Amino acid sequence: MTNTILTGVLVPRTLIGDVCDFGGKVSDDCVAGDLVVREGRAVCLTPSQYEPGKIVIPRLTEPHVHLDKCFTVGRIENVGGDLAAAIEAQRADMANWTEADIRHRAARAIKELEKAGCGAVRTHVDWDFQMERTGAPTAWEVLRELATESHMIVQRAALVGIDHMIDGCTAHSLARDIARDGGVMGAFVLDQDNRETGLANMFREADRLGLALDFHVDEGLSPGLDGIELIADIALSFGFGGPILCGHACSLANLPDGDVRRIADKLAEAGITIAVLPQTNLYLQGRTSGTPDRRGITRLHELRAAGVNVTVGVDNVCDAFCPVGRHDPLYTLNLSVLAAHLDPPIGGHLPLITTNAQAALGLAPVTVDGTHIDDLLIFDADSTAGLLNAPVPQSFSDVLRNDGGQLQ
Question: Which residues contact 189 (CB under 8 A, 6 or more apart)?
Fold first, then answer.
C-alpha cells in the first residue's frame, strides 16, 4: 500500500479526534511531523527532519450569514443607526431584489466562501409574509439553485418574525414547506408580544417534522429581553432532540453573573448552540450620539465555561446591517480575538469555525485524523497565531494533484 507524505506539518490538537493514536511531536497547541496520507485519508504524523511550515485543518464552516442581503450597501440610503434603522433601510432595498440581482450577489458571496476554504454554510433567507403572498421567496429558490452548483453544503434557514408563528396554521404551513425543501425553520425573536406562543408552535412543528431550528434572538441591549431563556425553557419542556442554533444573544451582556450561569446551564442541558456574531453586533449595538462604550458581544467565555457549544459567524457583509466585511470564517475569528478577548493559544479557538460550527448545523464534526484530503486545507503558516493572517488556503487534494500525486 503506497503512502503519500506531506512533510513539515502542524496539526492543531483541538482538531484531532484521537491525539494519542495520531502521533507527532507536541509543539505548543499543535503536534508536528510528516503527515501520512493513505488511500486518500490523513492517518497519522511521523517524525520529521523538516521545520514545520504548513498547518493542516478541516474545511471551515460558516454557521450564520445572509446571502440574500449581501453587497447591497452601495445602493442603500441612510446606512447607519441601530437595528431598527437597519431593518427599515434593508427592507426598502428589497424592491431591487430581482432573481438576477440576488443570483449575482449571492454567487459572488459563495465564491468568497469557497475561496476561504468553507465546506458548509448556513444562510438565512428573509421570509416576509406581506411581500410573499404565495410560495417561497425568490431568494429561497435562487439559493437552492446556487447550492446545487457549489461543492459546499449550503443550508437555507427561513427567517420570519416570531409574531407570525403565533398563528398555528401559519406555523404548520411554513414548516411543511421548509421540510419539503430540506430547509431549516428560523425566526427573529426580540420583544414581540406572545413570542412564547410563537416559539411553542415552532418547536411543535419542528419536532413533528424533524426540522432543525435557528433563531435570531435578543439582538439588542435593552433591558428585559428574555428570548434566549424562553427558547431554552421550551426546548427542555419539549425534550427537543434536533439541532438548535441561536444567534446574537446580546442581552446576556446585561445580566449579572448568576443569571448568566443559570441560563447557560439551561442552554447546555438543551443542547443549544450560541452563534457569536461580532461584526454586525459591534456595528449596530451600543450606539449613542458619540463613541459607543458597549461591545454588544454576548458572554462567549461564560457560555463555553458552562459547556455550551459556541461558534462564531460573519452575519452581514456589506449591507444595511454592516457596511464592511468578507465571507471568510478565519477573518471572523480574527475579529473575534479582538472583540471577545480570545487569548492565545489560538488553536483552542479553531473549533469555533470548524467542529463546533459543524455540530451547530447538525453535521458530523470533522477532525483531521481519518478525514479524506478533499475535506482538508493546507495553510502556509508556522503557528496557529500565524494561521489567522495566512494566505488563502489550498485544498489538500488540489496540492496533491498539482504535485503529480507525490508530496515530500
Answer: 162, 195, 198, 199, 215, 216, 217, 218, 227, 230, 231
**Of 202, 168, 207, 169, which Cα lies nearest the Cα of 187?**
202
Cα–Cα–Cα angle for 108, 109, 111, rounded to 5 degrees: 65
- What pTM value is reported for the model? 0.95
Taking the C-alpha atoms of residue 264 and residue 305, their distance in angstroms, rounded to an integer, is 9
- Which residue type is seen at 137? P
CA distance 287 to 13: 40
Of the pLDDT bands very low, low, confident and very high (cuts 50, 70, 90), residue 406 is very low
Residue 18 is placed in which grid cell?
484521537
Residue 113 and residue 146 in contact, taking contact as beta carbons nearer than 8 Å: no
C-beta contacts of 89-95 below 8 A and 24+ residues apart:
89/320, 90/319, 90/320, 90/321, 93/320, 94/126, 94/128, 94/131
83-92 pLDDT, tens digit per residue, is 999 999 999 9
Q: What is the DSSP letter of 363?
A: P
- Of the candidates 278, 270, 280, the one whose C-alpha atom is nearest the C-alpha of residue 300 is 278
pLDDT tens by residue, 309-337: 999 999 999 999 999 999 999 999 999 99
- β-pairing verdict for 60-65 and 118-126: parallel
Q: How much is the pLDDT for 405?
A: 45
| Partners of residue 11 on adjacent β-strands | 31
User: Are the CB atoms for 361 and 122 separated by under 8 Å?
Assistant: yes
Q: Which three cell numbers stand for residue 101?
A: 440581482
Question: Over the stretch 59-118, which tens digit does the pLDDT of each residue have?
Answer: 999 999 999 999 999 999 889 999 999 999 999 999 999 999 999 999 999 999 999 999
- CA 253, 226, 62, 53 dihedral sign is positive
Residues 89-98: contacts with CB under 8 Å, at least 24 apart: 89/320, 90/319, 90/320, 90/321, 93/320, 94/126, 94/128, 94/131, 96/72, 97/68, 97/138, 97/139, 98/138
Per-residue CA distances from 141 to 149, 161, 184, 338 (Å) = 13, 20, 14, 37
DSSP string, 307-359: T--EEE--B--SSSS-S---S-HHHHHHHHHHHTT-PSPGGGGGGGGTHHHHH
Contact 183, 139 (CB under 8 A): no
